Description:
The chain has 17 helices and 22 strands. Residues 559-632 have low confidence and may be disordered. 26% of the residues are buried. Helices cover 34% and strands 23% of the residues. The strands form 4 sheets. Strands 7, 8, 9, 10, 11, 12 and 13 form a 7-stranded antiparallel sheet that branches. Strands 14, 15, 16, 17, 18, 19 and 20 form a 7-stranded antiparallel sheet that branches. The protein is elongated and about 110 Å long.
Amino acid sequence: MAHDEDAAAAAAGLPPPAKKKSPAEEEAEKRRRKLTPGSLMKAVIRSGSGDATPADGDQVILHCTTRTMDGIVVNSTRREHGGKGIPLRFVLGKSKMILGFAEGFPTMLKGEIAMFKMKPQIHYSEDDCPVTAPDGFPKDDELQFEIEMLDFFKAKVVAEDLGVVKKIVDEGKGWETPREPYEVTARITARTADGKEILASREEAYFFTFGKSEVPKGLEMGIGTMARKEKAIIFVSSSYLTKSSLMPQLEGRDEIHFEVELVQFIQVRDMLGDGRLIKRRVVDGRGEFPMDCPLHDSLLRVHYKGMLLDEPKSVFYDTRVDNDGEPLEFCSGEGLVPEGFEMCVRLMLPGEKSIVTCPPDFAYDKFPRPANVPEGAHVQWEIELLGFEMPKDWTGLTFKEIMDEADNIKNTGNRLFKEGKFQLAKAKYDKVLREYNHVHPQDDEEGKIFASSRSSLHLNVAACYQKMGEYRKSIEACNKVLDANPVHVKALYRRGMSYMLLGDFDDAKKDFEKMITVDKSSEPDATAALLKLKQKEQETEKKARKQFKGLFDKKPGEISEVGVESEAGKNVPDSTESGEATSAARDASATDGPRGESEHAFVEERPGLLGLLWPSARRIFSSLGLNRCTVL
């Protein structure tokens, strides 16, 4: 949009519209207006090196000594002037600082020493100054600030409050970074802000598990932004220096600088989020994670060894031994391997080796179990992904080739459906339907074939939803077919069955009866469906009679007592049943009341809220002899 505006302005011979400033830029400009001639003066005491100066996003490290105009030191970071010897750190554009610093720091070179003379309104007496002056500080006086610019560099802000900041020394490889519960190997050295070493470097790298508080919190946060082989300095303030096994004693430390080289990290993934299915990468694969993983349905080639988790030496299958050294080949998304196995392989790179620990419900309890694997066994697989082939791209295929590919995928879905793997079957049908969005038949004959195939897929999706108990979605899938062909007999039948299973008997009956109207050959199926519908209605009504048995034998005055008993917590019914009982009770009261009350009686010409929630309620109450409702 901005590019279009610039182009339009150029075509009209006008200057491009001004770029909208961020809130931070507007605030900086507002503060800059407070500068007046002579309010901020700079004198260079020692020249710096190079020609680069700090910019927004850079962290500056400096010593500062503040003096009165008479030369009396007010405060200082230097030891010779009573300070701690710890330099100050600011991130330009992020840190809160006095106006004189915000305007003066960007003018300095690395190694430069300069004296800034500031009027009170440029330091701590500024209106709405974002920082507070130290106790006893002469904020109403004109002061001199001696600044030595020790260093500045582009900073990675890890913590929003600037308590953790990172300086990249050497770039790493790739873009993946460690996170919980990855296993990390790193070389770490720690120094105080004044340069005293408190954690010495050593030949052997440190090893820790991410997310288990084995290193200080701020250090872990910084390492969590690093790539493999990256070298960095991580500046951590006291609020992020938590106790850990690496550094148990940190009391009294205001700030620590960690020099880190991220040697390696092992990807550990909690696949279910509950610690039961864990994938641990032991050998890196080729490519970038996850772009080069077989995320989509693919032909996979793997070697694997299966063991019982409690008995590591009990190998129950090894492709290199039991499969004549040949790898296992299978198509993902077809239920050909245990679910936990496939979930992990989909997140592997070619050449990667991983160890997977899997609970029984994602291993062999829901899959044909090898003879030497007991029921309920936790297993461990050592898996190597040799490679995979992505599914064929339909671009450039003829219409016949596309329909053949669609039939192959559809047949796989049909097999999964027969095996009771309805979710996987639906995924296959959905995949073809998505591809169909890019298929355009060239003539009427192709159009008929295409329309028939698409309708068949929608109905297969409806059947999957029906088996999964999601009847509303099944009806929606059928509607997609009936919108294009309102007299599609199979769609009417499947939608009618979903209506019946949902308890919407009226709509189910309409669909079954319409089947006979539009196609006489479907009469046997429709008749059988109507008979089943009648049985279902009778079962529902019988259940309702049993549920309300004895409730309507009471006198009208006793109905309220039942309600009181329910409120006390005895036999509290479902909210829908409660509403029906109340309606029926009112009906009973009306029939026993005086004739004058009949003026308030009415026959339900259209369903109310209860009727919408439970379409069969009206018929049930009719069977109980309760055809009228009274407004009391």
